[in-house]
Amino acid sequence: MNSPNASSSDPAQTPRLHIAPLRDNTTYGDIAAAFAASYLLTPDPWQQLVLDDWLREVDGKWASLTCGLSVPRQNGKNALVEIRELFGTVGRGEKILHTAHQVKTAQKHFRRLKHFFGKRANDPDAKFPELNALVEEIRNVNGQEAITLKNGGSIEIVARSTGSGRGFTVDVIVCDEAQDMSDDDQEALLATSSSAPLGNPQWIYTGTPPGPKVNGEVFTRVRTEALQTEPYRMSWHEWSAEIGADLDDRTVWRQVNPALLTGRLLWDVVAGERGSFSDEGFSRERLGMWGETSAASVISTDAWGSCADEHSVAIEKLVLGIDINPERTMATVGLAGRRADGRLHVEVVETRQGIAWVAAFVKNLHAKNRIATVVVDARSAAASLIDDFRREGIRVTVTGSSDMGAACGRIYDGVMDMQLVHIGQPQLAAAIAGARKRNIGTEGAWGWNRSNAAVDITPLVAVTLAAWGVGATRVRETTKSKRKARLL
């Protein structure tokens, strides 16, 4: 695993956040590394640093009862855990319980361990016969995988559940995929080490920052406690980009992904992720950014506020944009048009819960005002209204993904160039503050990311569609009449 290009002087080999016991205490990290290296598992400098902290002792006890590691995926976290488990079971006779959120992850780890110990006791094909000679039993039963050694050490592998810790008594608990671990999971597991056979327990949590759809309460709490002024017997190692980091800066990629230098993680893979992931997903999964460090708003509050004019009115080429969220619980009708000075005006005409009101509301607006067109995204929930609008004689323009990229660019450029004006509506301001990007294709286009938004962004999507309609060549002008006030 080591590389001639990887050295402790490389900035990526040192975590941005590093909480650990005093380094003048005894550590077994070097012994663990040397032992693993004899079986072709040599740690990189960053892994050695973590090992040294995990395996540091004070008065015969682990200096860190609780260990946390947050590092982007595919950087070698699993290999680091393997070194810790090999040393613990073989060198110290520890009983280790290795847990993961998913069954497939737990089983994959078990297969990696069998690479060292063999497929069964007395396995003539074992790659390392001397390790296989230590084996008392290898249990291959799904959900009950375990390797038991003659010295009393063992590794048992389970997928987490509220009952996954029942019946175990262990020295070390490893919680992989800790970003998806609940309080109930933790409570079931920690009791297994309350009577640790060697009297020296340790809890290890490894993972990436929790996403919006997982239960990250435990991992988040471990991090919070570690970053306090006086954490109790804790270590925390975090490879993450700083707040405000440029997500496209390859220097940032390298600083938080130590495996890029060794070649285990490939630059073109990371570049592909940047093109495919949302900003939120890339900042979390590849740059290790937690909560407040995740991608900032696409348009800042200050920039948006500088475009406000409560007296603004659109007078030409009035276009409506319709958006409904995927759950069909919120809907918004947005408006865009040209002001007398030629600048683009946008506003939210109406936003309400549910969707039953939308068709009648738009029909009424269309009847009383000269609307050039109503714009609907073909892939949105609002597409279900297209036929209803057309039956009422309402001209509808349907957009595709490339149109959405152009539409979002128009909103962004309008704000940056001070060519867009809005009337300061709070629901639109909230949507701007909470909206993030999602990439569209591979050429740099992007749209508003609904899945990662913390607020309802239908107001923003609706006015974005309307703004696109104002500038689209296939939307013809229907009136030059001056609009003197809000829509009737």
What would your notes on this structure say?
Helix 15 (401-416) packs across helix 17. The protein is of the alpha/beta class and 488 residues long. It has a 9-stranded mixed β-sheet, with helices on both faces. Strands 17-16-13-14-15-18 form a 6-stranded mixed β-sheet. The chain has helices at residues 29-37, 45-54, 77-92, 103-117, 129-132, 183-190, 217-226, 250-256, 259-262, 267-276, 279-285, 301-305, 358-368, 386-391, 401-416, 426-434, 458-471; strands at 17-19, 26-27, 56-58, 61-62, 66-70, 95-100, 135-139, 146-149, 154-159, 172-175, 202-207, 234-238, 316-324, 330-338, 344-353, 373-377, 396-399, 420-422, 437-440, 445-448. The radius of gyration is 29 Å and the shape is elongated. It folds into 2 domains: 11-241, Rossmann fold; 301-471, Nucleotidyltransferase, domain 5, CATH 3.30.420. 33% of the residues lie in helices and 20% in strands.
CATH class of the largest domain: Alpha Beta
Mean pLDDT: 88
Radius of gyration: 29 Å
Largest sheet features: 9 strands, mixed
Low-confidence stretches: 1-7, 478-485
Query: SS-based structural class?
Result: alpha/beta
What is the CATH topology classification name of the largest domain? Rossmann fold
Helix content: 25-40%
Number of helices: 17
Indicate how many domains the architecture comprises.
2
In what range is the share of β-strand residues? Answer: 15-25%
* CATH architecture grouping of the largest domain: 3-Layer(aba) Sandwich
**Morphology call:** elongated
Give me the count of strands.
20
Assign the CATH superfamily of the largest domain.
Answer: P-loop containing nucleotide triphosphate hydrolases
Distance from N terminus to C terminus (CA atoms, Å) equals 69 Å
- Widest β-sheet, arrangement of strands: 1-12-5-11-10-6-9-8-7
